[in-house]
Amino acid sequence: MNRILTKKHISEDLVKFEIRTSICLNDIQPGQYIIIRMQESDPGISFPVIKTNSEKSTITIIVSTSDENSRTLSRLIEGSCLPRIDGPFGYQAQIEDFGTVLCIGYEQGILALFPIISSLRASGNRIVTVLSAQTSTGIVLQNEMNAVSDELITITDDGSFGEKATICQITGRVLRNNSINQVFVVGSGKTIKETCSHTIKNNIATQAFLHKQKTIEQGGHDIFKVSICGNEKAVCVDGFNFNAYYPNFEEMNKRFGCVGFNTQNRCEVSDVVSIPA
Length: 277
Hints:
Structural class: alpha/beta
Strand order of the largest sheet: 12-11-10-9-13-14-17
CATH class of the largest domain: Alpha Beta
Number of helices: 7
Helix content: 10-25%
Largest sheet: 7 strands, mixed
């Protein structure tokens, strides 16, 4: 049985749920995601797990009210039951003691970045974190990120919070001022490409986690793929993460756009189809 234990509004558009679940918590690793189905026939909504509590058998997720399905979920109250939670899906992030790690997240991509940073910190890494958004309202989990980061940089496109700068500008500055051993970036094709414009030049290993902008309907499911080294990767099945050096950015831009994020990617794991470029 999957039951909502606590519900808290952390901003106008974000709701945090603690859910008691029967799925095996030890199987959930940073970089993976779960799928919540409001009904058995529902294609479901995917979420990164912010944290787990083995004593209470709970997971914590944050729901964005960016589309109708997620708004329906966000309206549930404490004590409500969820018919089905599946997962985890995707490959876990490669976590070890790299040394100094740069972690970059944009708006809702920050939600998926948090468990990765927490795990990196527990492994002994020094963490430099960059949180980026269009406006101040897009900077989420700032206090939580500050607690697990050695250095926290916040930037916004309009300068309403933190510095007014681009990810490309900040990445270049951080790499000049620090000896970075590994980079994690969570974002759209544009976010990943801007980051890689510096990491490839400096030969720094980069793990990317793609979050698409557009909603692409294929028989009611959001199925999307990227080309890595000429091979198609079904993101909804294989996971959001890949070596950031090798994607076809032009193809990615055509399919998903370059601006913004949407972590609520509905997908039917058993029904992978190609999408038009």
